[in-house]
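tool=predict chain=A
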Amino acid sequence: MTPHSAIEVRELRKQFGDVTALDGLHLDVPAGMVFGLLGPNGAGKTTLVRILATLLEPTSGEARVEGHDVVREPLAVRRRIGLAGQFAAVDGELTGRENLEMVGRLNRMSGADARARAGELLERFDLADAADRRAGVYSGGMRRRLDLAAGLIGGAPVILLDEPTTGLDPRSRQELWTIVSELTHTGVTVLLTTQYLEEADRLASEIGVVDQGRIVAQGTASQLKAMVGGSVLRLRVRDSERIAEATDAVADLAVGEEPHVDAGEREIRLTVSDPSASSEAIRRLDERRLGLESVELQQPSLDDVFMTLTGHPVEEPADTFEAEEAAA
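tool=predict ok
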């Protein structure tokens, strides 16, 4: 295995009865970067995080964190990871400071060291003014920041963040993004799972696209977008009942995949190699008296990448969602 990888996964499989959550997944996360795992609910992201955190054993395959096997050396792995999930795991009856000091003591820190580290993190996460208030009265964003601080108190070199901004308002999400971006300046490796395209694009140095328990593509955001192979033409028609007719009229302008049709939004989306395809599409639809509300020619997004690779949008839940949630 690669000696400079903080996380190494080989042929990892996990079954929940008849449901396959992970299907021979391979992954290498270099040390000191934010690595994003992008995929819908049920794609296998949370199952992978729980295996890496030693909370769940794989059916087969191998996973290592900082060179330590998650099955054979669970204590060594736990000493090297911090974990923050979709819901803040803080004690609402304790103050913010007490929560952090308690986690520090559980990490075998002395009382003095735990107090000092808690004070440092409360300042860093903009929680110093609320440090001596019960965590139960914190806002959702404050609780999530406290949870992330708790994951860092032991100085772990690897942080696992499982959809940490789920349910947060835009301001709290931006605050958490800033903190995550700063983590790698200290040499910490971050594995971030998300179904937010903007989040993966902004935070991750490298992204793995997950679908049905496998990594179907991996690279930088720019490299992944290049896989689409052209610009993306979006056409919104006025009459939803004629969208099939409109799709037929422009289908041969697409390169690669077939045009994607969203009947509810009255939108046709196709990848084109030549920007002049937009004017040709307008001409063809005008000939057939198919009215258009809007025409947009854009560079591909991560959403387009995901659609190209999997055939469905990233927001679409996968079949493994219920089995994965039941195991959580």
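The longest strand covers residues 5-16. The domain at 5-80+156-225 is CATH 3.40.50.300 (Rossmann fold).
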